[in-house]
Write a structure and sequence with these properties.
Elements: E1 3-4, H1 17-28, E2 40-43, H2 48-59, E3 71-77, E4 86-88, E5 93-96, E6 99-102, H3 105-113, E7 118-119, H4 122-125, H5 128-131, H6 134-140, E8 145-151, H7 156-166, E9 172-177, E10 182-184, H8 186-201, H9 215-228, E11 232-239, H10 241-244, E12 250-258
Parallel strand pairs: 1-5, 2-9, 3-8, 3-9, 4-7
Antiparallel strand pairs: 2-12, 4-8, 5-6, 10-12, 11-12
């Protein structure tokens, strides 16, 4: 077995099972768990103290389907290394404080053989965009396999081809990990993110890194959603200034379900 060790446990989220479980219980406290047939989620990936509540508003819809979902295709940006296209890891287990998540190595190999992704651990080793989502999935789902994709510069059509490979399986959930604007003054960020949210609701597949750091994966989902007639629904929005009360440089967050 080859393990991908957590890189940001203890900074972006707690690094023990007890503390992580308690934090998740707090994030989901007082939320209802509606039965909504989400085909995909769009969720932020900052530290839980900043974006965890926003993410939980989307993740809560999974509770009703937790026995049905057996595979999660998780796509997020490569923050720490330059990447063209998509990369799957060679690791067959991703570790979190809550335990082990098996990687669907067969699906990863199929994507590699189809030329839709390369195999590389470098974009995954220190990346937080995928990692911070994993305890949410462990909290909301039963046993599942993971298809982790680090996404660099990549045309929407390539991401749409990846999603098409999985979208017909009723036991598969697609997740796009992305924040919105970065380091703008509070009001400017609020206005900018409102425009980006509206574009997402209309399945605009031409978002830029200034709109959303995970724009390449997000554009692919938007492109595919237009093809399939899927519709995003906003679940929550906020920015870091709402938590730390800074008005100078904030980061924007929003979560959606896609049906």
């Amino acid at each position: 077995m080859k393990y991908r060790i957590p890189a940001v446990a203890g900074t972006f989220y707690p690094d023990t099972a007890v503390q992580a479980s308690a934090a998740l219980n707090g994030l989901f406290a007082d939320l209802d768990f509606p039965s909504k047939p989400a085909k995909a989620l769009i969720v932020p990936h900052a530290g839980w103290i900043y974006s965890g509540k926003v993410a939980a508003q989307a993740y809560r819809v999974l509770k009703a389907r937790k026995a049905q979902i057996k595979r999660v295709v998780l796509l997020g940006p490569s923050h720490r290394c330059q990447l063209k296209g998509c990369a799957v890891p060679s690791n067959d287990i991703f570790l979190t404080p809550l335990g082990e998540i098996p990687v669907d190595m067969q699906s990863c190999e199929q994507l590699r053989r189809l030329g839709l992704a390369e195999q590389s651990d470098l974009p995954h080793n220190q990346e937080h965009a995928l990692e911070v989502q994993l305890p949410f999935l462990q909290y909301c789902l039963d046993q599942f396999q993971l298809v982790p994709l680090s996404v660099g510069q990549c045309p929407p059509e390539q991401i749409a081809d990846i999603l098409a490979h999985f979208a017909q399986a009723n036991d598969t959930l697609i997740i796009i990990s992305t924040d919105l604007s970065h380091f703008l003054p509070y009001q400017q960020a609020f206005d900018t993110d409102a425009k980006t949210i509206e574009r997402i609701l209309h399945c605009d597949d031409q978002l830029s890194p200034h709109d959303a750091c995970g724009c390449h994966a997000l554009n692919g989902l938007m492109h595919f959603s237009k093809q399939q007639g899927w519709q995003p629904e906003l679940m929550a929005k906020a920015n870091s200034g709402d938590i730390n009360h800074s008005k100078d440089e904030v980061v924007g967050y929003a979560s959606f379900i896609v049906n």
